[in-house]
Description:
The protein has three helices and six strands. By secondary structure, the protein is an alpha+beta fold.
Amino acid sequence: MKLIIAMIQPHKIEDVKKKLYEAEVFKMTVSTATGCGQQKGYSETYRGVITEVNLLKKTRLEIAVNDNFVKPTVDAIVAGAKTGSIGDGKIFVLPLEQCIRIRTGETGGEAIG
Length: 113
Ligand SMILES: Nc1ncnc2c1ncn2[C@@H]1O[C@H](COP(=O)(O)OP(=O)(O)OP(=O)(O)O)[C@@H](O)[C@H]1O
Ligand SMILES: [Mg+2]
């Protein structure tokens, strides 16, 4: 099992969700985050104006998947989020030790899917 964490541009979340649904990935956690990458925040634009703040608004996705879903999930995020501009985002893939569905007590791959 893997935990995929993606930081994307907030305006790309609907495109990413569409691509994830096409890849049959329906379970996700989405939250609002702030962050900066190698431009340290300064050279990106927010709603058309160059921002003076260091921490830019980003959308954070967390998706736990079985190993065979890592590539389809990553590919879907890239397909939905990529514009080719700086700040498109980043994807982290982490080993995931365990997953427990609280209602049934199922664990591991059965609980994830
Ligand atoms: N090494 C990192 N550790 C933690 N978070 C990161 C890291 N790199 C990027 N992020 C997060 O991802 C967001 C998007 O990063 P961003 O796409 O700007 O990456 P980048 O490395 O600067 O690439 P680019 O040059 O394409 O902009 C950042 O705002 C930050 O929240
Ligand atoms: Mg950047």
